[in-house]
Structure to design on (516 residues):
């Protein structure tokens, strides 16, 4: 499908009209404000917390490794 | 209940409304080409900007240490990077919002804040490495970095502060096309064809086996090829460009094309590194590699590689700074668009300016171990990537949000496989750090 429905069918002059997204009028998107937060089970919530802890730990480990390579610890 | 999608713009829903500008063409073929050219941009930019200064360093170091033996890994990352960015394309087109805004909306403020902090931290460290690379390359080119770096920073600010998304995009696409000069470099320095084909198509471990250095480099390669800022950048870019549902096919093609370019250019960088190995040069950083190879390939290639290094850093800087500025603007609820003049989006432009100025300023302070910082940042990005992709994966499975644009089962199989591999790599890194003797030394 091309940029607009204008492109789907030829106009009277037997030509297609192509419009740049920034020149076109805004289209209706998904209404995310109306949806609110995503419903999550306790399991998913726990998994995300574990992920956060893992990430913090890994960041510290990478920092240690880089400092070690830089011979900061002798 | 799923959201209802309106799959046509307002101009179609109400025939009395005529869009401001359009191009009239005769054939379907011309229509498709023109439409693609109008949609084209975010996919190419995100992928080519991913081959930033850190990437030049990591790929050329991989080549300098292991020749072409890791080319297969880069090739393997082509579908991986495409599948991940394609999800962002769908999310951006369906919602018209950036990634940071989506995490805030759907996971709440706490998770949104953590994701933002992660992003801004890694982005800033990466920006420092971009300017460090510019510093290094300019020094080797005989330009005083105290002049060259502020000039580069001013140029980076100017291209974004025009108040026109299109002007910024055209400038950056031009810089992306300059990156194709890596093909000429690789052609000049290429190893025998058989070695290239074997390196690219036969997965294997380089001579010496699995060592700590190899594992660190593999994680760095993965971390530089797929970085968290890319998710935020492309989605915000798509939202800023106001891509429509009907543009999805072309945005996917743009992303695929970008992925092919970035992976082949990455291969070219590795080939340059392998030429350095073949000539017996000791790799310290890519700028030194350019000087060394200049003695073998000629002064033109020396200058070309140094300028390509600067170009890679400039591309990386504009994309990463924008991903920070867009994300911050989305979360703070500020106006955040390249289409707006500075006076209408002061916060957004201020973040961009602060990112560029602070990173450039830091680099002018002498004494930073450049190569180590670059490698460390790539590894950190690799470590943070799985968690960023998990949020993306959860969002793409949110049928309430995305309806028909949500992941299909095969998407999930591919994505969970990618996530598992990424987690495994970061666990290996953790094990390697906790028990340094786990893998033999180099």
């Amino acid at each position: 499908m091309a940029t607009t429905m204008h492109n789907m069918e030829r106009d009277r002059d037997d030509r297609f009209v192509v419009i740049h997204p920034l020149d076109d009028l805004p289209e209706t998107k998904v209404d995310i404000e109306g949806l609110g937060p995503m419903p999550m089970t306790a399991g998913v919530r726990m998994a995300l917390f574990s992920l956060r802890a893992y990430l913090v730990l890994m960041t510290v480990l990478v920092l240690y490794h880089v400092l070690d390579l830089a011979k900061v610890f002798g | 209940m799923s959201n209802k999608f309106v799959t046509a713009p307002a101009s179609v829903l109400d025939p009395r409304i005529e869009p401001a500008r359009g191009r009239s063409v005769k054939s379907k073929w011309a229509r498709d080409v023109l439409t693609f050219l109008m949609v084209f941009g975010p996919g190419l930019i995100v992928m080519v900007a991913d081959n930033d200064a850190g990437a030049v360093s990591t790929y050329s170091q991989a080549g300098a240490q292991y020749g072409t033996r890791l080319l297969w890994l880069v090739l393997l990352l082509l579908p991986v990077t495409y599948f991940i960015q394609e999800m962002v394309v769908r999310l951006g087109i369906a919602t018209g919002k950036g990634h940071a805004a989506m995490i805030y909306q759907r996971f709440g403020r706490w998770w949104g804040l953590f994701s933002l902090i992660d992003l801004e931290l890694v982005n800033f460290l990466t920006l420092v490495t971009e300017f460090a690379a510019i510093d290094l390359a300019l020094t080797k080119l005989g330009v005083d970095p105290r002049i060259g770096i502020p000039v580069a920073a001013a140029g980076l600010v100017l291209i974004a502060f025009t108040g026109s998304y299109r002007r910024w995009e055209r400038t950056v696409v031009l810089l992306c096309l300059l990156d194709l000069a890596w093909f000429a470099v690789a052609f000049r320095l290429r190893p025998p064809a058989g070695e290239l084909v074997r390196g690219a198509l036969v997965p294997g471990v380089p001579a010496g086996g699995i060592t700590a250095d190899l594992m660190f480099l593999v994680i760095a390669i993965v971390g530089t090829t797929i970085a968290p800022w890319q998710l935020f950048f492309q989605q915000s870019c798509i939202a800023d460009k106001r891509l429509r549902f009907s543009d999805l096919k072309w945005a996917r093609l743009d992303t695929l094309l970008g992925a092919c370019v970035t992976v082949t250019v990455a291969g070219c960088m590795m080939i340059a590194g392998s030429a350095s190995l073949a000539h017996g040069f000791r790799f310290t950083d890519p700028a030194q590699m350019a000087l060394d190879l200049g003695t073998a390939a000629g002064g033109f290639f020396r200058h070309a590689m140094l300028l390509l290094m600067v170009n890679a850093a400039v591309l990386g800087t504009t994309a990463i700074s924008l991903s920070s500025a867009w994300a911050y603007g989305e979360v703070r609820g500020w106006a955040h668009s390249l289409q707006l003049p500075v006076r209408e989006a002061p916060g957004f432009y201020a973040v961009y300016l602060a990112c560029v100025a602070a990173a450039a300023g830091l680099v002018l302070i002498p004494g930073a171990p450049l190569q180590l910082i670059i490698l460390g940042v790539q590894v950190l990005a690799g470590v943070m990537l799985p968690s960023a992709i998990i949020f993306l994966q959860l969002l793409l499975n949110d049928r309430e949000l995305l309806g028909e644009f949500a992941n299909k089962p095969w998407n999930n199989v591919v994505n969970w496989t990618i996530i598992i591999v990424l987690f495994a790599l970061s666990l290996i890194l953790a094990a390697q750090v906790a028990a340094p003797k786990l893998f033999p030394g180099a």
In short: The first strand of chain B starts at residue 23 and ends at 25. Chain B touches chain A through 76 residues (CB under 8 Å). The first helix of chain B runs from residue 10 to 13. The domain at 37-434 of chain B is CATH 1.20.1740.10 (Amino acid/polyamine transporter I).
